[in-house]
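Field: sequence (string)
Field: structure_tokens (string)

Example rows 1 and 2, in order.
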Amino acid sequence: MTAAITGLQTRRIRTGGFGTSYVEAGSGARALLLLHGSGPGVSALANWNHNIPALADNFHVVAPDIVGYGDTERPRDIIYSLRVWTDHVWAFLDALGLQQVAIVGNSLGGRIALEMAHDAPERVERMVLMGSPGLGMFQTEGLTALRAYDPSPENMEALLKEYFAVDKSIITRELVERRYAASQEPGAHEAYRLMFFDPRHRGNELGVTEEQVRATRTRTLVIHGREDRVVPKEVGWTMANTLPNADLHMFAHCGHWTQIERSGHFNAVVTTFLQEA
């Protein structure tokens, strides 16, 4: 998998007592942090494999498997929550010695990015919130289906085709098999169920107040698919209208996976935004 992307390296680093898996590419002077979403079988590479080569032309790209996902270790005593996920990403950046980054966050990754910009705005140069939950978010049919996923190739295919993409042709057999296999890795589905169904965990508590959004002055690009069935486009509009320094790019004929379904255009829009004066 990694060999198909020239210059990409899969690495592991210690972050606060456990090992974090991440991918790294590019050698630009500016660091770009990519944060994946929360779907079953997700990982940094699965989420960003259409984007890393293009973005690495201009940036030093790092993309971790957020704790609970991918190949990052899953501590037995961890209690999943937005705070835990955010602190994990901070620990990851500290372990790499990265004091300031631009961030592109997909869905859950976007919500983490927003929290980071609130925590330490001086460390977040710019951010892109893509299909990210925010003000006005509610439990959609797509989000319910995402959380209810029961591992099987058939269920993975149905989930991806029904809720992630408008263009069904991008949901190939290879993609389905890869995501299904990842969702079946030891401990993966157990962690996924804990995050969102065990009352001790807080994976569903991703709300944000209008006060926090208005106080976030980081230069931001909100990206949304017009046909997103997981996070409604109205959430993207509301966030762009409330964040003090935000632009909005809405992709037509596109679902929750703008970075895959419209990868070429996505890469160009993100690169232009991150490089503009």
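Row 2 begins here:
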Amino acid sequence: MRFFSMAALVATGAILSGCSKKEVEEPEIRNNPDITDNIVTVTTTINLDENDATKALAIDYDAKTLTKTFAVGDKIAVIYHNKSGNLDKAESVALTESDLFGGGKSAKITVTLTNPEAFKSVKYIYPASMAGTDDVDYSKLKNQTGTLAGIAASLDLATFEGSLDGWCRLPSSVKLENEFAIIAYTLKDETGANDITGTVTGMTIHDGTNGYTISGRDSDGRIYAAIRPTSLAGIKYFATNGTKNYNKSVTDKTYEAGQFYQLGLRMAEAPVTDLSTISANYTVSNGETITGTPAGNYQISIAAGATVTLKDMTIGGTDNSDYQWAGITCLGNATIILEGTNSVEGSSYYYPGIHVPKGSTLTIRGTGSLTSIGQGGGSGIGGIGVSDGNRSYCGNINIEGGIITATAGEYAAGIGGGKNCNCGNITITGGTVTAYGGTKSAGIGSSMGSDCGNIRITDGVTKVTVYSGANYAIGPGINGSCGTVHIGGNSGGVAGAPYIYQP
């Protein structure tokens, strides 16, 4: 059994330095003896555009405009190329009152660069808390407090891209541009007669590409969210007050970077199905919440394209060949929102806790927990196993939040392929994840002799712990293969070795 444990890789502010002047008495020993540390401290002025939001954020609701200024204590991250050919990161000295000009629209920043490469690109990320190891960490948007102060403190992103000059100086004229739209929501019931914003304890937003989980609301009664720009997007909303669930779908919505929007949503009450009351196989529809435990051995499926909520629900675990299905079967693309404590288990040998069919994508988010167990040959979350000489396939798996424990049957991956099953891409951008791989199979990735797509785990996760029956905890099983494995940061590619493994 192999073990790999990774806390979220939150980069500490590294030093950045320059081309010509050696100021380190005892340079760090590096693998390349030809590289010595050249340290340079650079001071430059950066500016805000009138339409660009920054950390100090105020809203004029009548004019529907944002007022944005730099604030004392702010830091700016700078991503640059070092002479080893790698991207590196530095954080500026915290801004003081004397660093601010023009009512906070301009600021003087000071950063220290280590071995920067002249003429190479450089990127400013403001605030620095939005930076990963080598780019913006957009996964930090996944979970938000719903307050304007929360957005202003760490999520109101502005960036600039330029190049160092021949002396490794930062660009002399910099104007940061905002990357997000800010939205203030008020929610009413379907009739429009009753405000429900004040009762809502959680809300999710998904635009077909990006998802956001909002855990509260502002003291002014609104729910605030920072979102990435959209163009003619279909957006699904889900809200809960702990007793009732509400949903809303809208189409063709465009939200521009740097703009503030006030939106009122009428939300229909979502149905809640107690599984103890069903008496046949059941397909969960879009917006529906399922709870409880089936009284019999019934197949539970999620309709293609549906967003559903699991709330204190238990399914499967009979291990009976008469019931050949997964604990939950996705019939196409699906989004699962977790509330409370949930458990699913395959009902027969080869079947996973949750089956993700070929060509589809399962997204899991929320604040609850999920334990997903595959029967022998079945993955915890992912593919159905098949006997030797055969081949099956599963789709893509995205985990954005929740407390997830995925346990495979024998010869299957905890998250990924079942026995003799090729799986798609696996992306983990949030939550706490524990995965147990079966015999000769990875905890996250492929089973023995099978393939998987790219695996990407970003800085946004709280913790990932992986137990493996293969040489790699994250990646391929014995005699299998996977695409690119990237852990930490946000720009893709390989972090360290192609596959991460610790005995």
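free_text_note (row 2): The first strand starts at residue 2 and ends at 7.
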